[in-house]
Amino acid sequence: MTRLICQGKAEYCRVSRCLSAYYTVKYGLSAISADLKSYPPAGAPRMNQIRPLIPLLITAGILIGGNGLQGTYIALRGLSEGFSASTIGLISAAYSMGFALGCISVTRLLRKVGHIRTFATMAAVASAASIAMPLIIHPLFWMLMRFIIGIAVACLFAAIESWINAQVTNSNRARTLSIYRFVDLGSVTLAQYVIPLAGIEGPIVFSLIAMALSLSLVPISLADKSNPAPPKQIPFNLFAVWRISPLAVVGCVAVGLSMAAFRNIGPIYGEQIGLSVTSIATFMSAGIIGGVVLQYPLGVYSDRYDRRIIILATTAGSVVVGLFLALFAGTDEWSNIIGVFIFGAFALPLYSLSSAHGNDHAKEGEHAMVSAGLLFFWSVGATMGPLIASVLIDAFGPKALFAYTAAIQIVFIAYTVHRLRVREGVPVEERNWRFRSLLRTSAYFQKLATPGRPRDDGEKPHSPEKNDP
After folding, report:
1. What is the pTM of this model?
2. Is it the case that residue 44 has pLDDT exceeding 90?
3. Of 286, 67, 123, which is closest to residue 189 (Cα–Cα)?
C-alpha cells in the first residue's frame, strides 16, 4: 500500500511539472514582461534618478582622493627634505587656515559667478599650487601654497556638494549618500598607496595630485549641462552658535585639535617609529577605515538616549586607545595598525555626534547656521592641532602624538561632565534632529544628509522620517 501511495505521488508530481512547464511556456513571457514594467515598485529610487549624479560623484571621488593623498605626502616629503616636525605642522596649519577662509567666502563666490566657474577656477588654482611645490623646496613657499590650496579645496567641496544637493530628492537621497560615503572612503584609502608605488622623491606625486585636481573637471564638463541656481547665503554667527550649544562648539574644536593632528602628523609618527612607506599608508588607512565601524551604532544610541552620555563614552574609548598607542604599542607594526584602527573607530564619530547635539538645541531657521559655524570651529582646531602636536613630537618624540590627543580628549571629557551638570539634555521625544554621519568637507554636506529640507536654504526645521539615511 505504501509503495502504491508513493508511486501515485510521484506520478502526480510528474504531471504537475509537465503542466507547470506548459503554462510557463504559454504565459511566462508575458508575465515576465509585466514584472519588468512594474519594477522597481512605486516609490522606490530608480537607477535613472542616480544616473545624472554619477558625473558629480566621480568628480567628488577624484577630488577627495587627490586631497587625501596630498595631506599624507606633504608630511613624508617634508621629512625627506629635512624639515622638522614643527615646520611640517606649520605647513599643515596654513592649509587649515585657508580652508577656514574658504568656508566663509565660498557661498558669496557661488552666488556671484555660479557653480561651474567657481569649480573650474578653484580646480585650476589648486592644481597650479600643487605642481609649483616641487619647484621651490622651501617651508615658507610651501606654507603659502598650502594656504592657497586650503582656500581652493574648501570652495571645491562646497561647490560640488551644493551642486549634488541641488539635484537630489528625498527618494534618492539615501542611495546618493551611501555612494558618496563609499566614494570618500575608497578614494582616501586607495590614494594612500600611491605614495609607496610612486616613491617619495621627485615631482611624480605632486604631478599626480595636480592631474587629479585637473581631471576632476572632466566628468562634470562632459556629462552635466546644468548649472544649478546659486545657493542662498548661509547665516554665519559664531556667537549665536556658541549660545545654542557650547558643548558642540568645544567638541568640534577638540576633534579638530586631535584628529587633524593625526591626519597630518600621523605619517611623521609612522616614519619615526620605523614603519616603511607601505606600512605608513596602511597605518593611515586603518585609522580612516576604523572611523566607519562605530558611526551608525553610536548614532542609533545617541538618538535614543542623552547624546552627551554617548559623547562621553566615545571620547573615553579614544582616550584609552590613545594611551595604549602612546605607552604600550611601541614600534610593533601590527600593534600600531590595530590600535589606530580602534582609535579611529572611537574618535572619528565625535564630530558627527557633536554636530547632532548642537542641532538638537537649534531652533527653526538655525540649523544651517549651526552647520557652518561648527565646521568653522573645527577648522580653528585643525589649524592649531597639527602645529601643537608637531612641536611636542620635536620635543618628546613620536609617542607624544597620541599622548597629546589623549590629553585633548580628557579635557573634553571634563567639559562634557560639566555641561551634564549645568544643563538638561533635550528629551528624545522633543528632538527634531537625528544623527547622521558627516564629512568635514563643507556645510552643504549636512544639507545633503538632511531629508525633508529645501535644497539650499536649510531654513525649515527637519522632521525625522522613518526612511532617514
Report:
1. 0.83
2. no
3. 286
